[in-house]
Every structure is written in structure tokens, then in C-alpha cells.
Specification:
Elements: H1 5-22, E1 28-31, E2 36-39, H2 41-47, H3 51-62, E3 66-68
Helix pairs in contact: 1-3
Length: 78
């Protein structure tokens, strides 16, 4: 996918800001230059209930980002 880096960076920044306001930074991290968000399953479950998060996540994933949960049996490898 050919996406301008600035567009992806804005999506990463928006998700990071949301998560920093809601959770301890120990519960999530960005990997692979920001293209993968690793987040604990409890935090992700809470996020999924928030329409604002849903919009942020949809945008991030549409730009090639992926969200993983290494402590969740439902984690999928892209």
C-alpha cells in the first residue's frame, strides 16, 4: 500500500494520544515503525466499546496499520 508517511504518522499520533489519555503506557506499544500496535487484551476490549476508538482504529488499519494482542488467543497474524 502506497500511503504518504505523514498520513500514517497522523493516524499513529491520534491513536497514541487516545491511548495515553485512557491507559498506562505499559499496556500498549508501537512496533515496526508504528505500523503495528501491540495492546493488552483488557485495554483493547475497553477501546472497542468506544465509537471514537473504532474510528481511529479503522483509519489506522485502512492505512496499513495492524493491531495485535499478544496476550489474547484471538490474535491474528496478518
Amino acid at each position: 500500500m502506497n500511503v504518504p508517511a505523514s498520513t500514517l504518522h497522523r493516524a499513529i499520533a491520534a491513536i497514541a494520544e487516545y491511548l495515553e489519555n485512557e491507559f498506562s503506557t505499559e499496556l500498549f506499544s508501537f512496533m515496526d515503525g508504528g505500523t503495528t500496535l501491540d495492546i493488552c487484551s483488557i485495554a483493547l476490549a475497553q477501546c472497542r466499546q468506544d465509537p471514537h476508538w473504532q474510528t481511529l482504529a479503522r483509519e489506522y488499519e485502512s492505512l496499513g496499520g495492524s493491531i495485535s494482542c499478544n496476550d489474547d488467543n484471538e490474535w491474528e497474524v496478518a
